[in-house]
Amino acid sequence: MRIMTLPCDGIGPEIMTATLEVMQAANRRFDLGMIFEEAESGFASLERHGITLRDEVLDRARDCDGIILGTQSHMDYPALAQGGRNVSASFRVGLDLYANVRPARSRDVVPNKAPGMDLVIMREATEGFYPDRNMHRGVGEMMPDPDMALSVRKITRHASMRICREAFKLAMQRRRKVAAIHKANSFLMTDGLFLECFRTVAREFPEVETEELIVDAFAALLVRKPEAYDVVVATNFYGDILSDLASELSGSLGLAGSINANAETGLCCAQAQHGSAPDIAGRNVANPTSLILSASMMLSWLGERRGETRLMQAGDVIHRAVDAVIDDPARRTRDLGGTVNTDEFGRYVSEAVATV
Annotated catalytic residue: which of 183, 230, 238, 348? Predict the structure, then answer.
């Protein structure tokens, strides 16, 4: 079982090392036969190859069983013409990883602003407002003159139908509730098409309770009654913002796992929800929980689709091991009020994997 790892930028190499220690512990316990192969990306690739992500890396990733992607400093990359390729977007679009699955769960032992929150945001990741992924050639932004900037949004029936269908499938495994987030009162055609697709898919799942919420109203409701929501499905831009909000309300972006997946091809990429935090890079103080949980989600996702019990068990054990470590104040990282370093946290979780 081949897993590609891309440490990328900032704290990426540090949290990747901690994550791989945990994955190796699960590998030993469940005899998964995982082999990890590292590929260059981000600034390391730019320095060596003149581009932050080479096409040959994407080609290799297609033949892997899973991908673990570290954090990227995309805002600091040079222009695309100078090799500054958006690594995350390139994986999502290049490998058609359309489902960005982002859970947000509050823990009683961690201070949070959303008691009882336990939801998953299903975010479409290959189109929408993002100009680097909505045109066949070029990008969806342009400047007709120095004082005018225009941007094109793309919403398709194909992408909307499949993300909605994945949201309903997930809801069937949870509390059977799906909320569709939109702004169809303003974006009559684009969000209107998304809602049309949502309603079409809903008819395939009569057991699931549905709700349609305008994005600004949902942001307020997420703060007011977060416990009311189960699965939330949204187009790219809304899902990006709302998932960050939900994770921060639940305790911290540093506690939120995330995968990018394609149910049809079986490809899955684990990726932390947070950024590269260059201000603390190299200091061994970053919290690796998000990437560890993302890798756990990847194993569970692969296990469910392949019907492989050991993979599902491994994903569950890693998740419980993380919770067991966070439950102990003496083993928390600095962002959670503790004193534990990145590598120490990884070691604690890997030890817990053998016993929980």
Answer: 183
